[in-house]
Amino acid sequence: MKKTALLSIVFISLTSFLFGQLPIGTWRDHLPYNKVIMVAETPNKIYAATPYSLFYKDLADNTLNRLTKVNGLSDVGVSAIAYNAAQKVLVVTYTNANIDLITDDGIINIADIKRSNIPGNKTIDKIKCDSNFAYLACGFGVVVLDLKRKEVKDTWLVGGLGTYKKINDIEFFNRKIYLATENGVMYADKSSSNLANYQVWNTDTCACVYQKSVIDLEGIGSKLIAHIPQGDSSYLYVSNGAEWLPIMLHNDGKKYSIVNSYQQLVITYGTYDVAIFDTNFNQTGHLFTYNPGFISPAYASFDRYGDLWICDNENGLVWSNGKNTWDCRKQEMMGPTLSDIWKVFGNEKNMVIIGGGVDGTYTNLWKHAPISIFNDEKWSSISPWNNSVIDNLYDIVDGVVDPTNSQSIWLSLWGKGLAHVVNNQITEVFDGNNSSLELANGYTNMHGLCFDKDHNLWMINSNTPNALKVKATNNQWLQFSLSPYSNGLTTSALAIDSNGYKWVLMPRNNGIIVYNDNGTLTDASDDQVKLLDINLGTRVSSSAINCFAEDLNGDMWIGTDKGIKVFYNTSGLFNETNPAPQTILIEQDGYVQNLLEFENVTAIAVDGANRKWIGTTKAGLFMVSSDGTTELAHFTTINSPLFSDEITSLAINHKNGELFIGTRSGLISYRTDATLGSEVIEKSEVLAFPNPVAPDYNGVIAIKGLTTNANIKITNINGVLVYQTIANGGEAIWNGKNFNDEKVASGVYFVLSSNEDGSQKVVTKILFLN
To answer: Does position 79 have pLDDT exceeding 90, yes or no?
Structure first.
């Protein structure tokens, strides 16, 4: 059992807030909050569970607050929540069978089920609280938590001879405990001394429920209700103590949840509405619109004031006046609308995430995933709900933000061509039928997208004779053959290096094609093309190339299924007969090996200090030195708030140093201590934060807006030097201490910055309040 404090994400100072700066070393989540699956009422909060995390409405100050792995939760992927009033504990369960107990004193983690060696299904679908206990409906049986002692009290295996049986729901009714299972209803006397003994459990043999998949049990008044799905519909049966009888509440529609809420039966129909009934099944309320707005409810419950809280599949948490169900208000939390991240890309103005993709053989997945855009600290999304054009598009595999217009985004689709987004609207779609793009077997398979320094948009039109295309600044379409190397084969990722060379990935043929147009788009006579062998001259052969990124020295780093390889001196590629990549040798545990030799590298990002951030499929995120020989950091789900150790994509906002990390379980970001330096000092851009420094602040102070690798000297008001350092790219950090490792006294301190040759200088001030 692990106990952690319940933390809050706060900005350290007014200055840092105003400039949109996260403190260095800070994580923040970018999870979806538009889909809510369950709600729980506590004395002063309304908690809402999403499939990824929690958030709550504070009834005292009317604020919305998020609660994720970043600020206290132990895991991601919430499956259920329930509040135990006797012990004042919110029980949170996760899809991997982990458990958190949220109390006034903090969060207590109980990982017993998660760590157990139980084979098969360990999911926890429902929680039922009674007295000082929480009863968990698990994939193998029932687990009883003692919430007073904060530990597992008992486990009930109720299958034949004490074998595993999936439990969908638990209900206490008429001094009995009822279990909803995949093949009927089981029950036992609540007063039984040994409920862990399978022999005390009985199976209800009534034909209505016998051998049926029962997913909900709910007691209300003198009646017990069973919810049984059948095909695309669901049916409710009520027990009068002797037999089960069908009750017809609606003629059609799939029922998603049935809740006894303050002796009112609340039923959500995921396709269209919420219905409310009294204990005699007389309908007393009906909600089928949010006036205006579509409704897609998954769960709903009243609070003690008589207000209705609706968990919606698309609209998040919705409040409704229980006395007037037309009065509805969405409780909107900021976030994207997707969690399974295929790629994150962008610049200092916009970060964009897409959830499309293809499988390992570059076959369509037919995913109509939305597009989410992070701009000015706010998320917006393009989905079928607000743009009908996207409903005809699928498998968005790459994208690029226009460097001259942050509201202009280009997206490539595997099969449907090239889409242009302007001001969050898809304004045009190009394919093989209305442009110079080419069809392959009836499809326009587009992939990598890049702007060059002249603002020409380059793209990969895969499986075609002329796979490299460009939409020039004059809107002229041009195409280039990668013959004899591609010849209609699959090509995917694209990068343009500082030489102007186009690097094209051939994922299914384990090769990289480099194309040089020599800066003459309309003259092919001076063009050059070369195929690179990534295994030439290296001691470990890779069977897959996943990504590449150019660093600040002009070297191209290649991510493979066997770690990292690097092409140095890329300007001379076309002068060499067989250019060979190099492997970076490191010593680990007394053995010399290639950098990340045993890891499948999926993403590489280069920060302002030329350090490499490297994502993998199983080992999380690494940061290595500029030359790759030193591991500077290694983040995993165990030692950090990372949502998953499977990293799918990386992108850096070079202006503020925020690293966006795409995973299969959601997007998270981390504030690094490096930004991209400038060539010329702009005094107005040089800022220190936090500033002023509060007495209780013990973090680092960042100085940003500097020239690359600037020299930093910090003095007190009398000119005495107290600290000096070199900037990481365009940002320097200071821990607020002098050379004797003592916290500096109150007062004003001068930061003197100069570029590497001393020709440019700037001074800024930091105020300490101790």
So the answer is: yes
